[in-house]
Design brief:
Blueprint (H helix, E strand, L loop, with lengths): L1 E10 L2 E10 L10 E7 L6 E4 L1 H9 L3 E2 L1 H9 L1
């Protein structure tokens, strides 16, 4: 099953995240299918860039968004 979730990047104590499409069983930072956006929680204001068309496409194909990604999309 495909899942839309966050994959951590960035340095120690300076997190940045990618919004990725990935198999649900894979590791958090494992091989992903597609990058759907970026999220920087340390920026002021918070920096969130997502490709809503691709996210809607993948949800239509049966992918499920994680709770965190769902919350971020509602805020954006």
């Amino acid at each position: 099953m495909l899942c839309i979730r966050l994959a951590r990047t960035g340095a120690k104590k300076k997190p940045r995240y990618r919004v990725v499409l990935i198999e649900k069983e894979r590791a958090r930072d494992g091989r992903f299918v597609e990058i759907l956006g970026h999220y920087n929680p340390t920026a002021d204001p918070i920096d969130l860039t997502v490709d809503r068309d691709r996210i809607q496409y993948w949800i239509g194909q049966g992918a499920q968004a994680s709770a965190t990604v769902t919350r971020l999309l509602a805020r954006a």
